[in-house]
UniProtKB/TrEMBL annotation:
This is Uncharacterized protein. The keyword Nucleotide-binding applies. GO terms for molecular function: ATP binding. It comes from Rubroshorea leprosula. Keywords: ATP-binding, Nucleotide-binding. PANTHER family: MITOGEN-ACTIVATED PROTEIN KINASE.
Length: 130
């Protein structure tokens, strides 16, 4: 199954995002692209997964949200009643420092990207021939 297929199946399940769910997209082109895709209504998770417990359905609905700012956080998910039997804060390791996902955040200019590619290539070929 390709990423595109997974994305399509997910969109059919969670439905097409409304404009308020596109705010996290920084690019107007990205928002236009998402808006032009075929529109799908949100499917009731309990109907799509009739054998899942209501707690599992609730957790899944909170995790599968288009806007990452509206998704359940890791801490909230671990505290969700569905995971309560598996969650014991006394025996769970804690990361000594938060993960840094800065690479996910910046909007690079074309020049920044060219410089980053150049710097990376120099690591593999430190003495360029001129």
């Amino acid at each position: 199954m390709t990423l595109c297929t997974i994305s399509f199946c997910l969109k059919q399940l969670i439905g097409s995002p409304d404009d308020s769910s596109l705010g996290f997209l920084r690019s107007d082109n990205a928002r236009r692209y998402v808006r032009q895709l075929p529109q799908y209504p949100r499917q009731p998770f309990s109907a799509r997964f009739p054998n899942m417990s209501p707690g599992a359905v609730d957790l899944l609905e909170k995790m599968l949200v288009f806007d990452p700012n509206r998704r359940i956080t890791v801490d909230e998910a671990l505290s969700h009643p569905y995971l309560a039997p598996l969650h014991n804060i006394n025996v769970e390791p804690v990361c000594p420092r938060p993960f840094c996902f800065d690479f996910d955040q910046p909007s690079f200019t074309e020049e920044n990207i060219k410089e980053l590619i150049y710097q990376e290539s120099v690591k593999f070929n430190p003495d360029p021939i001129h």
